[in-house]
# Entry
Amino acid sequence: MNALLCGDRSAAAQQRSDSIVMKFGGTSVEDASAIRRVSQLVKERLRQKPVVVVSALAKVTDQLFAAGLAAAEGDREVVLEAVQRLRQRHEQIAAELLERENYDRLRNDLEGEFQALDEALCSIAAEGQFSPRAQDNLLGRGEALSSRIVQAVLWKDGLDAVLLDAKQCIITDAAHTRATPLWDETNQRLKAALLPLLESGSIPVLGGFVGSTRDGVPTTLGRGGSDFSAAIVGAALRATRIEIWTDVDGVMTTDPVICSDARRVPRLSFDEAAELAYFGAKVLHPATLLPAMRHDIPVWVLNSRNHGCEGTEIRAYSGGEGRVKAITVKRRIAVVDVEPVRWLAPELLREVCDVFERHQQTLDLLSASPGGLSLLVTSTGALPAIAAELKGMANLRWENHKALVCLVGEKIRRQPEIASQVFRAVSDVETRMICQGASERSLSFLVDEAHADESVRRLHHLLFPSSEVPTATFQSRAMCQAGDVWS
# Structure
């Protein structure tokens, strides 16, 4: 860390406010019991001047997306059924949580939101397409519904909770489904809206995930963007901390679904957490950490179902350098081999990168040899068009159904014994594209997707020993080149 950056972080810390941001994910507001826990958690932090950011109820965004697709295809019955299920779920939760007077008031508000939802679906049906702009207008409705319910419950429980429309505060560019905040304007609007409420003792409640352009057109920050919303709010306020409340005890050494003896990681650096997010860890949205890093705001990952657990703290420095902190796996990877027609030259490398960029195809990793290039991509839909554009310069071949297994920890690249232990543990697995990472904090390798889970289990048993893990043997198969599009 250079002196200039350290100086910036020190200055940011000196300007820090005394508020915190509490973001509750979909599973933390999925039903009446979960929302009661949210209210209790907010009560416990009243002295810390909380700002509450809320995701849509669990699975609602997926259901809205499916309804949007059905509307574009003209399937009226599916749309009506989806909206009815959403209406019943939200109204049932509200009825469980509120007495008659407050419920009637909230039901009227929810009805207004469902009218807007109906209008959005009718517009999609009329256009016959589910455009990115239409997606943003529709998918943000889930947060509008959930935030109204959470605000009403906090108010019922004696807290001065005030609902704010995040679309009025988070101003973005017009890159629909993946918008980027216009930072100066967003910071100004957030401060103007939030600071007076906090100073008066109120609790602002905002839906995450959403924003709008300067012209008021709804946008979204990408899937998982409620985490990003919380970080945007925290950065604007220079909050003392940002809390991401989920249904797990924190960042884990690996996915507990893969490895039952996965354990909580007490602390990570921003850089370690960013690497884990990039390589497939599901706890944090990859963009979440950037505003927090910029202002040195600690981020905590906590469990709303087990609030006594200390969770995982993420900040500039974590300690434990030279050892692996966690193992993650990124699935649905395709490996693309680029074979030059004549020879590999810098001009060809530049052209390949330019062509992939023009087709909005992100490259995960790249390795080069005199015989050509190997690239990793997460989608193959554009590859036939890319291959056609490069014809005459290079031939493309690709294979689907790969997974990238990644180990993350500060300065593990400087520990050669880690790499040797890792590859001994998976010596009978066909691996490709071994990469130690320019950042010095990651070590990754590519395997068949069918072998990913067992690879992770073996490595977890090696690096985080706690119980015996039964060994399994792999049937190694030769790599075959595939030119079909992977779906």
The two ends are 42 Å apart (CA to CA). The longest strand covers residues 326-340. The first helix runs from residue 3 to 14. The domain at 9-248+283-315 is CATH 3.40.1160.10 (Carbamate kinase).
